[in-house]
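dumping this here before i forget
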Amino acid sequence: MNRTLLTRRLEADGHTVTTATNGREALQILETELPDVVLLDIVMPELDGLVVLEHLKADVGLRDVPVIMISAVDELESVVRCIELGAEDYLPKPFEPTLLRARINAALTRRRLTRVEQARVRDVFARFLPETVVDEVMQRTNGEPRLGGVRLVGTVLFGDLRGFTTFAEQNPPDLVVDVLNRYFGEMSDAILDEGGTLLGFLGDGILAVFGAPIAADDHADRALTAAREMLHERLPLFNAWARESLADDDAGFRMGIGIASGPFMSGNVGSARRLEYTAIGDPVNTAARLQDLTKVLRRQVLVADSTRSLLRDERIALEYVDQHEVRGKTESVRLWTLEATVE
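structure:
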């Protein structure tokens, strides 16, 4: 009778209502339907409200659904326990229409705000993660804008735009920013299309990792494929655009790319007001220093032997360059490159 009365009142307010006669049936319904609000009686056959609530809050896909507990006057202690488990509110029986409407509207407002926030967070993730892994990250983190620190093996790519400092000194700020944004757009697409994660833009440099935050066995292959696309497809497109936009047939930029693999730690760092996803470890430092070394050795790409040894695709051909001292490392590093030509 209570269930019928409650259903009629909710439908009269314009809501669509699905009912269950016991806790087990409720969980079965929730496997296929995602409601905006759950009204959950504490006393039910088969599975009581406490057990159902625990199931809801343990399910990543359901834990954000607001739950309003329904209780009799003498069940206050159980209501407190439900609030501790994550229930948003409670309704006493018999139902008072004004209070029922207020509780439902408040729960719906919270649900809408949660969805807006999750959409915002997803947009943030999509700015540095490939679209194919955004949904997986959102599911793992339950929509929270924080990726806990993990230690994994991946590949780091550091790219630098040559000659841009001189260009920036000789041109108006608006033009400099437009050119740099165009360059980053091209290179970011190459990285994201290969499943890489953008860590940041450092001046005219770009830093990315492959194999984080979602592990990938072929991270080394992906990094080298991205580097090849950056150099042989994206950079020519960018330079063609630059020549046309600057009305200068001689306009053109070059790149240097350093790539290294190995174990590193990754996760969100920062403060409550600003977070950044980053990676910390030897491959990050090595990739940056190999990029610097491309200027000395006059190579567009330098690949550490740590990356070459992890390649899975035999079609990725590398040419041996030399064994060279790298600042910060106690032993010299065997270096490889993607192409035979020098700058």
